[in-house]
Amino acid sequence: MIDDGTGLLTIGELARATGLTVRTIRYWSDEGALPPVARSSGGYRLYDAASVARLELIRTLRELGLGLNAVRKVLAGETTVAEVAAAHVTALDAQISSLKVTRAVLSSVARRGSTAEEMTLMNKLARLSAAERKRIMEEFVEELFHGLDSVDPAIQERMRSTAVDLPQEPTPEQVDAWVELAEMVQDPEFRAQMREVVEFNAADRDHAAAAGRSVWFPMRLLRLGAEARARGIAPESPEAAALLREVLGDGDPAAVLERMESASNDRLARYRELLSTVKGAGTPSAHRAEFGWVVAALRAGADR
User: How far apart, in Å, do the first and last CA atoms of the chain sit?
Assistant: First the structure.
């Protein structure tokens, strides 16, 4: 305290009273968070008891991670500590989420022994903002259905619900799956394959048919393939042809074969597996063997 009866403190005395460095206090003062209450005859900054309390508040807010701009607003009464804290919590949540993604990426790189180039790509795709990741998937789905109003509503709803995002705490496997999925849905060749599947659905759907039939029919074929394989029925046998006629009814086997071949390739199966992994639902069976039996039986029928 300066010996002039004013009770004011020099910056050095303020530093000793609070345990902060002179350099820190001077910086906060220069930035307008702790203006001096007066100046000595020699031009030195002077502070009072209220300055000590203000300094303690600044230190607390800074230790909580608030920037000086937010601190100044609190001190000026432009916002409350509660409001700033709430905003800071939101910012910290975003930072924590980003760090968790980074950790998952590094774990995946360590596990896979990725090259520097692979690591760069993984980090770039995995660190996209949630909004950017959502945009990638939504644009993919929008392109699939553009101009095709007759697609089964159940198929449309199922596809639109697949605009998946990484969970808040992704596993390395989910990061791997997301990176592969993001690359896949941005590949023009894969988009063309998926568009072909959707166009088949739009072309052969009866507008009077109940929503969901396009999902139900492949499941019947899946069960047919599974049961036939379990019974050891060869796809080229007369018994296989009879089973197909029972399921298809008056349907055109050639049209069903064309649709099955478009929707049953390995890349589409991989797409479904990746979606399931990112969602945390495990890796489902792609039923390649079951659908393969159906395709083989349809081809055998076409050759007769």
Answer: 107
Q: Does the reported pTM lie above 0.85?
A: no
Burial class (CB in 10 A: 0-12, 13-18, 19+), 261: middle
SS3 state of residue 281: coil
Distances (CA, A) of 286 to 97, 176, 212, 265: 32, 19, 20, 10
Degrees, nearest 5: CA angle 177-276-225:
120
Residue with tokens 């305290």: 1
Q: Cα separation of 196 and 215, whole Å?
A: 16
> What is the DSSP secondary structure assignment for residue 210, as one 8-state letter?
P
Distance CA 7, CA 3 (A): 8
| DSSP calls for 21-51 | -HHHHHHHHHTTSS--SEE-TTS-EEE-HHH
CB 303 within 8 A of CB 240: no
| Cα separation, 135 vs 163, whole angstroms | 8
Cβ(262)–Cβ(200) below 8 Å: yes
CA nearest to 106, candidates 18, 189, 175, 187: 175
Is residue 123 scored above 80 in pLDDT?
A: no
Burial of 45 (C-beta count, 10 Å sphere; 0-12/13-18/19+)? buried
The CA distances from residue 72 to 64, 125, 274, in Å, are 14, 37, 48
For the stretch 166-182, pLDDT in tens is 777 778 788 788 888 88
- pLDDT on residue 87: 75
Q: For residue 14, is pLDDT > 60?
A: yes
DSSP 1: -
φ, ψ of residue 47 in degrees (nearest 5):
-135, 155
pLDDT of residue 209: 47
Compute the distance between CA of residue 247 and CA of residue 11 in angstroms, rounded to an integer: 90
Residue with the bigger pLDDT between 100 and 189: it is 189
Phi-psi region of 209 (alpha: psi -120 to 50; beta: other; left: phi over 0): beta
